[in-house]
Design brief:
This protein has 124 residues and is an all-beta fold. 0% of the residues lie in helices and 48% in strands. The strands form 2 sheets. Strands 2, 4, 5, 6, 9, 10 and 11 form a 7-stranded mixed β-sheet that branches.
Length: 124
C-alpha cells in the first residue's frame, strides 16, 4: 500500500504558475504509474496528466497540453505537476494518484491510491 500527500496548491492570478508536489510513502514508488487529476465544484473528477514508472513517457489532457508538465523523482518518491499560464478554468482540487500498472492510464477507476487533494484557485 502507498500513501500520497500533495502540497503546493494556493491562490494565483491568471497567467501565473504553481508547482504541485506529491510525496509517496514506501520503498516501491518506482513501480507505480503516477497521475494527476482535478475536480472542480459540481463537476466530476477529471484526468490531467500521467507519467510512466521511469518517467520516460507522459500523457496529458488536451485542456492542459502545452501548459502543464508532469515529472517524477523516484529517488525522492515524489511526482510533480508544473502548471504555467494558469487560467480561471484550472481552479479545482488537484489529486495525485498511483497504480501498479503499465502504460499511462487516464481513468479515475484505474487508480488504486489517492491523496487528499490540494486546492488550486486561479483568479481572473
Amino acid at each position: 500500500q502507498v500513501q500520497l500527500v500533495e502540497s503546493g496548491g494556493g491562490l494565483v492570478q491568471a497567467g501565473g504558475s504553481l508547482r504541485l508536489s506529491c510525496e509517496a510513502s514506501g520503498r516501491t514508488f518506482s513501480t507505480y504509474v503516477m497521475g494527476w487529476f482535478r475536480q472542480a465544484p459540481g463537476k466530476e473528477r477529471e484526468f490531467v496528466a500521467t507519467i510512466t514508472r521511469r518517467g520516460v513517457t507522459t500523457y496529458y489532457a488536451d485542456s492542459v497540453k502545452g501548459r502543464f508538465t508532469i515529472s517524477r523523482n523516484n529517488a525522492k518518491n515524489t511526482v510533480y505537476l508544473q502548471m504555467d499560464s494558469l487560467k480561471p478554468d484550472d481552479t479545482a482540487v488537484y489529486y495525485c494518484a498511483a497504480v501498479n500498472a503499465d502504460g499511462g492510464p487516464s481513468s479515475v477507476y484505474e487508480y488504486a491510491y489517492w491523496g487528499q487533494g490540494t486546492q488550486v484557485t486561479v483568479s481572473s
